[in-house]
Write a structure and sequence with these properties.
OB fold (Dihydrolipoamide Acetyltransferase, E2P), globular, seven-stranded mixed β-sheet, about 25% helix, binds S-adenosylmethionine, about 30% strand, 3 domains, Rossmann fold, 21 strands
């Protein structure tokens, strides 16, 4: 039955938001229906579609009664752009929906009967909060129905911006975006213009031809430093065009203190490369968090909401409740942000990180901030922890894994380290729930989970949790 399509139009009330931002309601027969673009509080007419195990997908045909929480979206690209999903829902409801999703994940995927999930921590600035944007070049521009009706308009074979929702083969040539600072969009426009006039085509994974691949713009919110990384195919003869563009960006925007050129021969659509050339500046920018200064290289992970990250990390430090003589392990430590904030209060912090560039940054950051009680170890966390607490027994272990959550070996190795407290920072409630459940089967008790909304208008939510040894 699953995967089959049902037909027919039904009317229903949307009562909540699911992961990913789709509205959920129930048919008269009690079948759960998931509707893209709908909001809690709306009564909608929908066309039923594919039948999944626990719900049926449906397409929104008409809003019969508007939700009291509906607001006008700010962006003209809203509705099809893959960047935002919730601009049409008022912010308090977004926050509540995210906290509910965390609670549900812990109940349904983690098996916690009454998970200790706190109220969500709101983002102070719901627009202009992103300090990093990754824009993609494409040779098939996404067109709105109005643009399709005006065939004379626009270069349809060139675009630089974001993917439309669910369409990896198309690019929206962004005119505006309200998630980053306005200067990010100004930089984008200069690069759009230069790219379109360069005579070089965007790279496409259809034929693996073309030059321009990605544009990454990063902002040091507290330092005013900007980094632009231009990612292209490997065409040594064309490098002069990137160099000219780099100088132009630096002259037009004095805040752009670093421009790098990353060369990629990869056939995959990923914004990395095998060679990095620093064209302008030192090759990194700096950011300030919690009174410390951090250097950020083009490839290194750094939280994309500076102010939100500061509050998240403050919470992590508070939950760790460190005593002066204590040792901390920061597993998945990136450029050492949490590790260094904890080092100021601990005897010693040991950070574990896979990315060599991030480890270089972490060591440089320790030096920059005069924190000598830190050690950063490069390697795969699962392999490094296999030998037990060889860097000394930790009192606190911080875990901040990527979206996929803890590697199964890390899950089972962490309890064996014998720490009294675990602080788990997560960007994915589903993997968080499964990881917490496993850790709690191995001698820990879940004390609190605090959702932090660092990404308004998107379905993403960050959580910081505390577990203590039983
Ligand atoms: C969500 S980030 C957290 C970074 C840091 N705690 C912060 O807040 O900036 C996850 C980090 O885990 C690293 N990572 C991914 N897989 C890893 C592995 N197998 N072993 C160690 N580190 C890994 C990534 O490179 C990334 O820096």
């Amino acid at each position: 039955m699953h995967g089959e399509k049902r037909s027919g139009i039904v009317e229903l009330d949307i009562d909540r938001l699911a992961f990913g931002g789709k509205g959920l309601g129930k048919t008269k027969e009690g079948r759960v229906v998931s509707v893209e673009g709908s909001l809690p509080g709306q009564r909608v007419r929908v066309r039923l579609g594919r039948v999944r195990e626990h719900f049926t997908e449906a397409r929104l045909e008409e809003v019969v009664r508007q939700s009291p929480h509906a607001v006008s979206p700010r962006c003209t690209h809203f509705g099809y752009c893959g960047g935002c999903r919730l601009q049409h829902l008022d912010y308090p409801q977004q926050l509540e929906a995210k906290a509910n999703q965390v609670r549900e994940a812990l109940e349904l995927l983690g098996g916690f009967a009454e998970p200790p999930v706190e109220q969500g921590v709101a983002c102070r600035h719901v627009y202009g909060y992103r300090n990093k944007m990754e824009y993609t070049f494409g040779d098939v521009r996404w067109l709105t129905p109005e643009e399709i009706a005006r065939p004379d308009q626009a270069d349809r074979d060139f675009a630089l911006g974001l993917h439309p929702r669910g369409r990896w083969d198309r690019i929206i040539h962004l005119e505006e975006c309200h998630l980053p600072h306005a200067m990010s969009v100004e930089i984008l426009k200069v690069v759009q213009d230069a790219g379109a006039r360069s005579g070089l085509r965007p790279y496409t994974t259809r034929t693996h031809e073309g030059y321009w691949r990605f544009l990454i713009v990063r902002q040091g919110v507290r330092t005013g430093q900007w980094l632009v990384d231009l990612i292209t195919s490997d065409e040594p003869r064309e490098q002069v065009k990137v160099e000219t563009l780099a100088r132009h960006l630096n002259e037009t925007f004095p805040g752009v203190t670093t421009v790098t050129h990353t060369i990629s021969s990869s056939r995959a659509a990923v914004a990395t490369g095998e060679e990095e050339r620093v064209l302008i500046g030192p090759g990194f920018i700096e950011e300030e968090i919690g009174g410390l200064r951090f250097r950020i290289s083009p490839r290194a992970f750094f939280q994309t909401n500076t102010e939100g990250a500061e509050r998240l990390y403050e919470e992590a430090v508070e939950l760790a409740a460190l005593g002066e003589g204590e040792r901390v392990y920061d597993v998945y430590c990136g450029t050492g942000t949490i590790a260094l904030l904890m080092a100021a209060r601990a005897r010693e912090v040991v950070g574990f990180e896979l990315e060599a560039a991030a480890v270089v940054d972490a060591r440089a950051n320790a030096e920059l901030n005069g924190l000598e009680n830190t050690v950063f170890v490069e390697g795969d966390a699962a392999k490094l922890l296999r030998g037990g607490p060889v860097w000394g027994e930790p009192d606190v272990v911080v875990l901040d894994p990527p979206r996929a959550g803890l590697h199964p070996d890390v899950r089972s190795l962490v309890p064996a380290l014998g720490a009294g407290r675990l602080v788990y920072v997560s960007c994915n409630p589903a993997t968080l729930a499964a990881d917490l459940a496993e850790i709690c089967r191995n001698g820990y008790e879940l004390k609190t989970v605090i959702p932090h909304d660092m990404f308004p208008h998107t379905p993403h939510v960050e959580c910081v949790s505390l577990l203590t040894a039983c």
